[in-house]
Write a structure and sequence with these properties.
The complex is a heterodimer of chains A (414) and B (357). With 414 residues, chain A is of the alpha+beta class. Chain A is 35% helix and 14% strand. The longest helix of chain A has 21 residues, at 329-349. The chains are: A alpha+beta (414), B alpha+beta (357).
């Protein structure tokens, strides 16, 4: 309120320019909150010295083990009002929909109990209420919680999930993302609120293979919409598109960009698709939004094990379930059962600080699949192994499994 | 005090439908097609004929409540009181009729919120907390992003790139910013400096030893106290030991540099998803505006814009022209550090005579 502002010559330079400035926002908060005066002082100090001055510690709310990110200042002697500057991670509605009414209520709570600084949203998909004293955490959370919002994940736990806008506004969406997101997450609340797993576990839900949630790169378990039947074509709209854009554009930007060369343009400017070659990449549908649409036999592809560098290097998620319907209650129950089996096996077998993808790298995909009782499928691989360094005493038994699942098999290969 | 204990309502992810625009709820799963009347504006049409207009605007992400309230005022006056946020912290205003789209775009622009981030634009940079709030950052996040977006403003409000461009920044090698067409990440260049007086009191030593990707950390005694030491010949300066053991200080004002990576792609469109690849390093961590980083990013962007074909993402363009041409066009030095030496590295080498001359 009354605390004098620190000189912030470096941060002041971030008030110029055309992009909206977070520094201007911080300064506006500092008019009412001493905490923000000192926060600005510490941030300027970081800019001057090129070092960070926050350390972790312990802070939480009653009943939960995680969700509050504790931050204590290492330079509190100089900036005492922001000595404690904790964050509450709160889960947003799936798809990040808000009314202005609910946003205002959240702002009012944070004006009363916190710094007034909110990140919409953190990289894990949480609303980040940033800047709270240890003393105020419980009161802030209680009010947010009473409003219908719950704590997000932090630490070695199931983490807050993200889902795309999907069914709510996107014609590419191949399953009900809100239902999937809420069904899965609200089943794992104990594992989310009380960290006791080897490390973090992230679910992300993308409605189509455009994967707007970056789930293959960032989720331990990626649930991505797809379809099994033919791409739907409105040939009148195809002709209109060719008329509007020209044949060269269609050839250069639609046909030859198809990764499996499954498209061709007929002499009458309609489109032919070799559907059994289509890998559902979305490109032609992205370009010709009015003429082409995903098929109607829709479901999801589930991938496992995506994560960034530490410790063993980047891992992209890889196919676990090539196709799964996700429509009936039984379908959703099966998805939950799969996720439970995976998390249970990883909780028992993962090393400390080992993501599920790293565990799979260590034990091998074959062993992982057996452990969670998922059958092998050639859609899981880019290519079969190229080295002979494997024991295959049980080849016949493995081949029988393939046949037992109703696959045709050539005589003599066993 | 004990009588005051309140048990949390373990309600989980809130129901979205109570906040969703009524037209989105009504046509849930029933959308037919969309187009973009102009940059920053989306127009979706439902199977039954309902239409919704979306106006997308950039935000600072770390927002004060006054900015959020201003956005709410705008949503109430010009849209229908319903908004949503994208994964890149853009706000989307939802309008059930076309009437106010133009005036909303004007109002947002006047109030300093750029309208754009759709289609073939450079959208908002994905970033995390940095010096503002993180306990392990070597750099800031919001400041780097603000500086760069000031320079890339025109690329945000126009759709003038060959395909969409996604940029991210990260203040340590955990890389919270994520994979991107252009990723700006901290790269430490010196091993951690260890405060041996604190290690045994603060760190769970076996856990720290286990975190090291190259087994360079081992238990030791210094001045009679149990501590940890680093084999500096093995150390790759990744900083993995620092979060579990703050006395192993990896951040350095001079030696924590910035590196630039290109060609990450999350979508399955055309090509499979890809990871970003190192192209430049050794850039100074230079607040408040990081001009050296901005220069390299803009050079790469401009080269991509001038040379890529329609619909080619950064990585797809480089796949077509080849890495020699990429380094020639961008005038970035190619070094031995571009050769991978981690596990699986040989798969990144050219096992063929396919060479462009």
């Amino acid at each position: 309120m009354s605390k004098k502002m620190h000189q912030t010559p470096m941060l002041n330079q971030l008030e110029g320019g055309r992009w909206p400035s977070f520094v201007t926002g911080l300064k506006r908060l500092a008019e009412d909150k001493d905490m923000m005066v000192d926060l600005l002082g510490q941030l300027e100090h970081s800019y001057e010295t090129r070092k960070g001055y926050w350390k972790g510690g312990t802070a939480s709310v009653l009943g939960y083990g995680g969700g509050v990110i504790p931050r204590f200042s290492e330079v509190a002697d100089k900036y005492p009002a922001s000595a404690e500057f904790h964050t509450l991670r709160i889960m947003p509605p799936a798809g990040m929909h808000y009314t202005t009414d609910i946003l205002r209520k959240l702002c009012d709570i944070w004006e009363r109990h916190g710094s007034g600084l909110i990140a919409l949203h953190g990289q894990s998909g949480d609303i980040m209420f940033q800047g709270c004293t240890s003393q105020n955490i419980q009161a802030a959370f209680d009010e947010i919680n009473e409003l219908g919002f719950d704590m997000g994940g932090a630490g070695p736990s199931v983490r807050t999930a993200m889902s795309c806008v999907g069914h709510a506004r996107c014609e590419h969406s191949c399953y009900d993302e809100v239902r999937a997101h809420r069904t899965v997450m609200n089943n794992f609340l104990d594992d989310l609120h009380r960290p006791a797993l080897p490390y973090k576990f992230k679910f992300k839900f993308s409605g189509c293979p455009n994967d707007c949630m970056n789930s293959i790169q960032r989720a331990d378990m990626a649930i991505i919409g797809t379809w099994r039947d033919d791409i739907r074509i409105n040939q009148a709209e195809v002709k209109a598109f060719v008329r509007a854009k020209g044949r060269k554009y269609v050839i250069d930007n639609v046909l030859t960009r198809c990764p499996t060369r499954c498209l061709s343009l007929n002499d009458d400017d309609t489109l032919a698709v070799q559907n059994q070659d289509c890998v559902r990449c979305m490109h032609c549908i992205n370009v010709m939004t009015k003429a082409l649409s995903p098929g109607l036999d829709r479901g999801v592809t589930i991938l496992i094990g995506g994560k960034r560098t530490l410790k063993i290097g980047d891992l992209l998620g890889t196919v676990l379930i090539p196709f799964k319907k996700l429509e009936t209650q039984a379908d959703f129950d099966e998805l939950l059962e799969l996720a439970e089996n995976i998390i249970e096996f990883w909780a028992e077998n993962g090393l400390e600080h080992e993501r599920v993808g790293e565990m799979i790298e260590r034990i091998g995909m074959g062993n992982f699949l057996e452990a969670i009782n998922v059958e092998v499928d050639p859609a899981m691989i880019s290519q079969p192994r190229t080295n002979p360094f494997v024991r295959m005493d049980d080849w016949d038994e493995q081949a029988d499994k393939w046949r037992a699942h109703g696959h045709a098999s050539t005589e003599g290969t066993s | 005090m004990a009588a005051q204990v309140r048990t949390p309502i373990e309600s989980g992810v809130p129901d979205s439908f109570q906040y969703m625009h009524p037209l989105l709820a009504k046509n849930y799963g029933q959308w037919s097609w969309h187009d973009r009347p102009h940059a920053g504006v989306l127009h979706h049409v439902a199977e039954g004929g309902d239409e919704i207009w979306t106006v997308r605007a950039g935000t600072p992400r770390q927002m004060d409540i006054h900015t959020i309230r201003k956005l709410c005022d705008i949503a109430d006056a010009y849209a229908d009181g319903h908004v949503r946020f994208t994964i890149r912290s853009n706000i989307e205003f939802l309008l059930g009729s076309r009437d106010k789209v133009e005036s909303l775009v004007r109002k947002l622009t006047e109030e300093g919120f750029p309208v754009g981030g759709t289609g073939n634009s450079v959208s908002m940079i994905a970033h995390t907390q940095g010096w503002l709030h993180c306990d392990i950052p070597a750099s800031d996040a919001s400041g780097v992003v603000k500086s760069l977006m000031d320079e890339l403003y025109d690329e945000f409000v126009n759709e003038a790139m060959p395909n969409r461009v996604r940029i991210s920044t990260s203040c340590c090698q955990i890389n919270c910013g994520g994979q991107a067409d252009i990723a700006i990440n901290i790269q430490h260049t010196k091993p951690p400096r260890i405060n041996h007086d604190l290690v045994s009191a603060v760190c769970e030593r076996p856990a720290v030893v286990a975190r090291c990707p190259v087994a360079a950390i081992r238990p030791a005694k210094v001045n009679g106290k149990p501590t940890l030491e680093v084999d500096e010949n093995k150390c790759i300066c990744c900083g993995a030991c620092y979060p579990p053991c703050p006395p192993m200080q990896i951040n350095d004002p001079e030696h924590s540099k910035l590196a630039i990576w290109v060609g990450g792609k999350n979508s399955n469109a055309r090509t499979k998803p890809t990871l970003h690849k190192l192209v430049a390093a050794g850039l100074p961590n230079n607040p408040p505006r990081w001009p050296e980083v901005a220069a390299v990013v803009k050079k790469i962007l401009r080269t991509y814009q001038e040379n890529a074909r329609d619909w080619e993402r950064m990585g797809e363009w480089i796949d077509r022209i080849g890495w020699p041409r990429f380094f020639e066009l961008t005038q970035l030095p190619f070094t031995k550090h571009h050769l991978d030496n981690w596990r699986g590295a040989r798969q990144s080498l050219n096992a063929s005579t396919h060479i462009r001359f």
